Amino acid sequence: AERYGFAQREQGNDRETAPIFTQFLDCCCQLVRAHPLCFEFDEEFLLGLHRAITGQQHGTFYGNCERERFALKLEQRTTSAWLALLASDVGLNPMYTPMEDVIVPDIDAAPRLWVQMSLPQ
Questions:
Q1: What gap in Å lies between CA 36 and CA 5, rounded to an integer?
Q2: Which one of 6, 51, 59, 85 is CB 3.0 to 4.6 Å from 78, fit for a cystine?
Q3: Count of CB atoms within 10 A of residue 68's CB?
Q4: Are residues 81 and 88 in contact, defined by beta-carbon separation less than 8 angstroms?
């Protein structure tokens, strides 16, 4: 949560913010689009993860480490983002096919803008 700037905004310091997790989710989305049968989840699941961190409703992604989450007693004060996401079938890929091979990204394929995350309605 600190890297998203939630704590810094309260303190008036936003110089240390970097949405690395959002960039990671975007990379995952690009791979899911290129290899839709290889993942147990889809874009909706990734969007749910993004909402979980930016919405600050769950303590799962708050703090920089497990020790900080434990010190803040987040398990007692918040719900788990994972339990909320996995409680429904939204975002699960019914076409998932387990593979033994390594997924090799196509470096010639241009990434596409993830409109649902980049330009929310």
A1: 32
A2: 59
A3: 13
A4: no
Res 21: pLDDT: 83
3-state SS of 71-98 is HCCHHHHCECHHHHHHCCCCCECCCCCC
For residue range 29-87, list pLDDT tens digits in order. Answer: 999 999 999 999 999 999 988 888 787 777 777 777 888 888 988 888 888 888 888 88
Q: How many CB atoms lie within 10 A of CB 54?
A: 17
**What's the rounded Cα separation, in Å, for the pair 109 and 104?**
12
- Identify the CA nearest to 44 among candidates 79, 5, 94: 94
Cβ proximity of 54 and 46 under 8 Å:
no
SS3 41: strand
Q: Cα torsion for 99, 104, 110, 113, to the nearest 10°? A: 50
Q: Which residue has the tokens 């110089």?
A: 15
